[in-house]
Amino acid sequence: MSNQNGNAYGLTTLCPIRNGSLSVAAEGCPAEASFSAVTRYHLQNLGAADQSPMARVPNTYLCRFYVLDDVMYQGTPARYDTLKSSYLVFTSDFHGKLEPWLQGMWNAATESVRKIWEHCVGFDSVHDANGFIEYIKKCQLKTTFFFNGSTDDSLADQLKSLYLKQEFSRFAFDTQGKTPAETQQAFRRFVQRVQPANPDGPTWRPGQSHLS
Amino acid sequence: MAIISKSGTIEPDSLLDLHDVQGGVVKVYARFGMFKGRYVCFRVNKSNAGRRFVLLMSSLITTAAPWKTAVPDATTNIAFTYQGLRSLRVPVNTLHGFSDEFSMGMRARRDILGDTGPSSSIHWDPIWQSAFDDQAVHIMILINGKSLEAVEQRYQAVLNAVRDANQKEQQPDGVKLLSGHCDDQRDDLDYQEASLIYKDGKPTRKEHFGYTDGISDTFFKGTRSDPSLVIGGGKPTGGDPTTIAGWAPLETGEFIFGHKDEAFEYPAAPAPPMFSRNGTYLVYRKHHQRHWPQSFPVAGAMVRRSRCFPQRIRRTSLPQSWRSPQRMPGLETPRLPTKRELRNWL
Q1: Is the pLDDT of residue B308 over 90?
Q2: Residues A17 and A109 occupy one common structural domain
């Protein structure tokens, strides 16, 4: 089955970047740069981890952006080929259906979406969420052999699970050597604090990748 | 642009982002009226200041993209030594991907290069004698300009970038200008000047022996240069060598990392690919040429550090032989020197 694996959706898009250049007034960029270089510059300056704009997009397991300059040549006897333009490659694994997720992405990260896709062919016709959905569908490739590397649960449930796992490890470490009665008391306080049944309670933040 | 191969099939041209290639790799600046040059060397004492300096320089760097409006008065390009990249904290795994020739430097390879005797490094300009101590060259800035004034203006902009970088990082000597270039009178200059030779106030294409310089420049795919420059600059196709059909562009990878070369592979380059793609190696050598007092037939490979002259020269004083464009290499029958001539020459 392509694209969908249980409740998880695997999105693959290749968005052509316009050939040409523009003047750039940004530190770290030459005075004039190609559209692909500017796109790459915006991607490299996105916030990382929980500061990434994609961390605000609901139900996103994982996503990746990169600029594909050209295809690799494998050497003879392979036929040499080259792309007519660079491509912005955007892939994402998320929970749910495509259109609601894209709607959520547009709503949560409008400015970042505009900046990242600004120099892609045809993106100047995108003005709202519906236009963005239509555009992405045009650039979409079928994701074959899609395997969801996590559970089939919502992002909130998965983040809560990760949180509980880390907190329980800490609990086990902190209660080493305590008596059974002390351990039981500590465990009751632990459950009260972490609220295992409440995914909206204490949990990992989207994009968080380490404990501190 | 598509290239029509000898077999008649159309091969796609490589997609070269000329904005990501430095101008000095593709453009012959002298063809645009830039007859003056200046080469300035720096040392990075503090990596943060060095990285800040490179960041500030990036807006001054001239790319290989065609100039849309007027040709600028001056251009700027940048190069790094192996020690320079190390001082900028380029990861060790990346550094290991450079060629031995680059990482060792010319001084360590002097026996292979023939830099012995009068060419030994002890006779080099002082700036190049300290490969590993606190005066080692890390970064070179290459300035070309239409006039000395334009070159000087750009030079001052580079020095301002150094001052800004040091100030922002609060490192007074974070990046340091190195002196030690020579001219006829001094050996402590802050830069190396370069220029075309002028005669009667006009620039010439001659070097100081009187021979025509810049006979050809290599022509490779993706540069979007004038197609006629492929004549003599590309590879022969077997067709008429006086026409474009007799030549084909060389593969981009012969000169620039990240592209297919003539062996149909990617040239060895440091990882990751994004680090080295569209980069290349630069060789900087400063020669002091001497006139020989008498003439003799010479095989091209034996002429040390001068033009490769594969043909027999006439029995006149060597410097006079090829001043005339009608007597340029390629027009006479080659002859190798006799054993007696070789002994006399050596």
Answers
A1: no
A2: yes
Closest Cβ–Cβ partner in A30, A75, A80 for B61? A30
Evaluate whether A87 touches A39 at the Cβ level (below 8 Å).
no
Whether the ω angle into residue B273 lies within 30 degrees of 0, i.e. cis, is no
Domain boundary among A121, A141, A161: A141
Strands, DSSP E only, in chain B?
2-4, 10-12, 36-44, 74-80, 139-145, 175-177, 192-195, 198-199, 202-203, 235-236, 247-248
Answer whether residue B10 shows pLDDT above 70.
Answer: no
Mutate to test the interface with B, among A32, A69, A84, A119 (most CBs of B within 10 A): A69
Closest Cα in chain A, distance from residue B101 (Å): 26
For residue A172, the SS3 value is helix
A103 and A76 part of one domain: yes
Contact list in A for residue B14 (CB cut-off 8 A) is 70, 82
Residue where a domain stops, chosen among A82, A116, A141: A141
B252-269 confidence digits (pLDDT tens): 999 999 998 999 889 999
Distance CA B235, CA B230 (A): 8
Same domain, A127 and A178: no
Domain boundaries, chain B: 1-19+214-289, 29-204, 300-345
Q: Are residues A42 and A136 in the same domain?
A: yes
Pick the residue of A34, A38, A45, A87 with the most B CBs within 10 A to test the interface with B by mutation: A34
Looking at residue B170, the DSSP 8-state letter turns out to be: T
Interface-testing mutation among B16, B19, B276, with chain A (most A C-beta atoms within 10 A):
B19
Residues A73 and A158 in one domain: no
* Average pLDDT, rounded, for chain A: 92
One domain for residues A61 and A118: yes
The answer on pLDDT for B205 being more than 90 is no
A142 neighbors A17 (Cβ within 8 angstroms): no
B233 close to B223: Cβ distance less than 8 angstroms? no
| B264 to A83: CB separation less than 8 angstroms, yes or no | no
Residue B212 predicted with pLDDT over 90: no
Q: Which two tokens stand for residue A46?
A: 């996105």
**Pair of tokens at residue B313:** 């020269």
Quickly state the pLDDT bin for B4 (edges 50, 70, 90): very low
Task: Answer positive or negative: Cα dihedral of A170, A171, A172, A177.
Answer: positive
3-state secondary structure of A16: strand
Which among B13, B19, B264 has the least Cβ separation from residue A30? Answer: B19
| B19 with A75: Cβ contact below 8 A | no
Average pLDDT of span B285-301:
57
A93 within domain boundaries: yes
For a pLDDT cut of 90, what percent of chain A falls above it? 74
